[in-house]
């Protein structure tokens, strides 16, 4: 059974919707960021500060590869997973859901969040969002326009469209 991956920009609800969906269809949920924090025994901002983003990205890729050896999991990724071509290629061969929201909504959710080290200015985030959009589109197998939807309604929609029950 294929895994189901969630991708999208910071704040789009990958962690929230993946956990809700996993519960709904009684599958195991894996959050790559939580796994990284467990492996490193420190929060993500500390990993960025002490070991650097390159180190974080290598670990993120390695753990993504590990999930590919598993089956039937629901996996929430971090928003930057699509930076590496190898990750994009792998994700595109799985069931990969892009939670697509307008930037302004995401900005409202993540502005001032110190647990996300890449959250800096409005302009910097907007540029990152624009640069990443085509990469999410290239990596996903299903793009979901989420505006107006709750995690619950998105979960029900995915169960239906992916015929998960
Ligand atoms: N469909 C939704 N509607 C409104 N708020 C949402 C929705 N999905 C997630 N959120 C909220 O957005 C914030 C970021 O969600 P999170 O799951 O951490 O995103 P990600 O893992 O993609 O960065 C959380 O406060 C969460 O409750
Ligand atoms: O977009 C990114 O580069 C990142 C997103 C974060 O995950 P969320 O997308 O769950 O916030 C986390 O992996 C790290 O802070 C880097
Ligand atoms: Mg998350």
TrEMBL record:
What pathway does this protein act in? Metabolic intermediate biosynthesis; chorismate biosynthesis; chorismate from D-erythrose 4-phosphate and phosphoenolpyruvate: step 5/7
Asked whether the keyword NAD is assigned, the reply is no
Give the reaction(s) catalysed. Answer: shikimate + ATP = 3-phosphoshikimate + ADP + H(+)
Q: Name one Pfam family in it.
A: SKI
Q: Which GO terms describe its molecular function?
A: ATP binding; magnesium ion binding; shikimate kinase activity
Q: Where does ATP bind?
A: 11-16, 116
Query: Which GO terms of type biological process are on file?
Result: amino acid biosynthetic process; aromatic amino acid family biosynthetic process; chorismate biosynthetic process
- Compartment(s) of residence: Cytoplasm
Query: How cofactor binds (record note)?
Result: Binds 1 Mg(2+) ion per subunit.
Tell me yes or no: is Metal-binding among this UniProt entry's keywords.
yes
- InterPro entries reported for this sequence: P-loop_NTPase (IPR027417), Shikimate/glucono_kinase (IPR031322), Shikimate_kinase/TSH1 (IPR000623), Shikimate_kinase_CS (IPR023000)
Q: What is this protein called?
A: Shikimate kinase
Taxonomic source organism: Holtiella tumoricola
């Amino acid at each position: 059974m294929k895994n189901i991956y969630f991708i999208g920009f910071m704040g789009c609800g990958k962690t929230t919707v993946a956990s809700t969906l996993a519960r709904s269809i009684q599958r195991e949920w894996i959050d790559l960021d939580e796994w990284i924090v467990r492996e490193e025994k420190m929060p993500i901002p500390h990993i960025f500060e002490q070991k650097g983003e390159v180190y974080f990205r290598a670990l993120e890729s390695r753990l993504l590869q590990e999930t590919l050896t598993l089956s039937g999991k629901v996996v929430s990724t971090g928003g930057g997973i699509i930076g590496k071509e190898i990750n994009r290629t792998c994700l595109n061969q799985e069931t990969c859901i892009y939670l697509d929201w307008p930037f302004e909504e995401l900005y409202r959710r993540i502005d001032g969040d110190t647990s996300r080290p890449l959250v800096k200015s409005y302009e910097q985030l907007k540029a990152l969002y624009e640069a990443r959009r085509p990469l999410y589109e290239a990596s996903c197998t299903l793009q979901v326009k989420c505006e107006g939807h709750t995690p619950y309604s998105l979960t029900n929609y995915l169960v239906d469209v992916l015929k998960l029950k």
